[in-house]
């Protein structure tokens, strides 16, 4: 199975701590049982996580996976959040347990450019920090998700600036969007229509958009499946037919693999 990208997952808060004007760390190296994020409000610290190392300051997030030693040293008086979290799929309450599928997520330092937005998030998070009831934890989790959303949006925007638009791949997107829900759709025939081999098409599409055309179609189909599960009472075979799948059994396999829950469970959990 392919690893998840940043846009495929969301962080689920375990707990958050805030440290104000810290002059040094009590322990210079620590290992955490969950993912951990050091979000710097003020000051500077040096860090090392495996092959990743450097200095972090305001606007930086330092992300460390579980079980990996994190060495750190305060350089200038430090105010920061320590956020412990797991990774979930966006529409699943289950933690992603397969660490191999998280290998493409950032580790070490990432920098968020929109400092005003991040500063506002930090202020709200600080206001909520001492409180531990369910309401405030839920709000803390929403703020953590907003930080992750900001990272994803800024990363995607930077990628678009780096690469000129590929007119042929823009055409491919339009054709995929128009044909994705037809179970007779053939990626091989579309490649030929674009005068590319399937391998050339896949590489060129992924270079432009960061995902394969197959993944793009699967996402389109499953977005429509989720919408129909929540907005209609159609049986799964009928939804499968309308979303490009041959039958409900195959759709259920694809859906369960992607979201780690069956379509029927998704409908019962999310339908109002």
From TrEMBL:
Single Gene Ontology MF annotation: DNA-binding transcription factor activity
Domain of life: Bacteria
Keywords: Activator, DNA-binding, Transcription, Transcription regulation
Domain HTH araC/xylS-type: 170-269
Pfam family, one: HTH_18
Protein's UniProt name: Helix-turn-helix transcriptional regulator
Species in which this protein is naturally found: Paenibacillus oceani
């Amino acid at each position: 199975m392919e690893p998840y990208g940043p846009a495929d997952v969301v962080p689920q808060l375990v707990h958050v701590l805030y440290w104000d004007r810290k002059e040094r760390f009590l322990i210079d190296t620590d290992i955490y049982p969950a993912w951990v994020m050091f979000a710097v409000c003020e000051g500077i610290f040096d860090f090392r996580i495996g092959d990743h190392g450097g200095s972090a300051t305001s606007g930086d997030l330092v992300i460390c996976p579980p079980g990996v030693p994190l060495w750190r040293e305060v350089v200038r008086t430090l105010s920061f959040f320590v956020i412990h979290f797991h990774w979930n799929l966006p529409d699943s309450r289950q933690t992603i347990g397969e660490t191999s599928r998280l290998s493409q997520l950032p580790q070490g330092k990432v920098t968020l450019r929109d400092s005003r937005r991040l500063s506002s998030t930090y202020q709200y998070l600080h206001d909520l920090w001492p409180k531990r009831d369910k309401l405030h934890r839920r709000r803390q989790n929403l703020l953590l998700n907003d930080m992750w959303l900001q990272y994803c949006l800024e990363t995607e925007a930077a990628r678009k600036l780096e690469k000129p638009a590929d007119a042929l791949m823009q055409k491919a997107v339009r054709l995929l969007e128009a044909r994705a829900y037809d179970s007779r759709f053939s990626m091989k025939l579309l490649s030929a229509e674009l005068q590319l081999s399937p391998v050339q098409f896949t590489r060129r599409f992924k270079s432009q958009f960061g995902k394969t055309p197959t993944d793009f179609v699967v996402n389109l189909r499953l977005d429509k499946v989720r919408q129909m599960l929540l907005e209609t009472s159609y049986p799964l075979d009928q939804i499968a037919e309308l979303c490009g799948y041959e039958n409900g059994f195959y759709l259920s396999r694809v859906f369960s693999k992607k979201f780690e829950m069956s379509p029927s469970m998704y409908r019962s959990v999310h339908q109002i």
